[in-house]
Amino acid sequence: MPFLKFAALPLAVVTVLVFWSPINGTSWVNAAFLFVTVIGYYIALTFYCTPYNALIAELGHDSKQQLTISTAISFTWVAGTAIAYVAPVIWGAFVPMMGRITAIRVTFTIMAAVAFVCMLVPPLAIREKGYVNSHP
Description:
The chain is an all-alpha fold. The protein has helices spanning about 1-15, 30-60, 65-85, 85-100, 100-125. It has one domain (about 1-130). Helix content is about 80%, strand content about 0%. The longest helix is centred in the N-terminal third of the chain and has 32 residues, at about 30-60. The model has no long low-confidence stretch (mean pLDDT about 90).
């Protein structure tokens, strides 16, 4: 659970940074920045998703419970992906007010903020010690 708490913010921040280039226009600095942020994104994703997936074995005490947890994770992934596909509609509403580039950046910043809150739900809501039967 501590990994989930501490990995959520870096994952949300690096996700936003992928879309916020430091220089307007084409530049090698932007390419280097994108390279670093995408690598950072996958590292942060690993720090969140690996412990999250490890919870399946800890929270599910039999194969039926583990299957239920895996199914719930799959459904939330599908729901999150479906919401992500709505991004062009959201930034389309912002384009008249702020231009296309800023609208895209603001949209992904909002989505990352919502994702950050959602990523904090498991570590704050699940009391791991109540589910785990640890044996030395």
